[in-house]
Design goal:
InterPro entries: DUF4845. This is DUF4845 domain-containing protein. It comes from Pokkaliibacter plantistimulans. This protein is α+β, with helices and mostly antiparallel strands. The chain has one domain. It has three helices and three strands, in the order αααβββ. It has a three-stranded antiparallel β-sheet, with helices on one face. β1 and β2 form a beta hairpin. α1 runs antiparallel to α3. The radius of gyration is 23 Å and the shape is elongated. About 10% of the residues are buried.
């Protein structure tokens, strides 16, 4: 009577380990990308609203700050930069997120966006 051995091969174990690592990375890194999408949506909506842009830099700062607080997003103090050239307001967003993985191994994510708002 012939009997075949059954069980996981080395390649199967490597594939399973690889998938586990990918899932762990997605769970740790995913929220940072979701926060960045939220920041992008908040600022895009703020610079597209004529009433907010008409208030100038202070109106933009207040509106964006309130919306970030509502969505519980913490950005570094120097992440947002506002500047003006004539009747055009520029909003620059530059920040990094450091996410610890294991022991002294971390992932650094850099986010950078540029927005323009024309004052009516």
């Amino acid at each position: 009577m012939y009997s075949r051995q059954r069980g996981a091969t080395m390649m199967t174990m490597v594939n399973v380990l690889f998938l586990i690592v990918l899932v762990i990375l997605a769970v740790k890194i995913g929220p940072a990308y979701l926060d960045d999408r939220t920041v992008n949506a908040i600022i895009t909506e703020a610079v597209a609203t004529p009433d907010i842009v008409a208030e100038g830099g202070r109106g933009l700062q207040t509106s964006i700050g309130k919306r970030l607080d509502i969505n519980d997003i913490d950005l570094p103090k120097d992440a947002l930069a506002y500047s003006r050239d004539g009747n055009i307001w520029y909003v620059d967003v530059n920040y990094e997120r450091r996410i610890p993985l294991v022991s002294n191994l971390s992932v650094v994510l850099s986010f950078s966006h540029h927005y323009e708002a024309v004052k009516p």
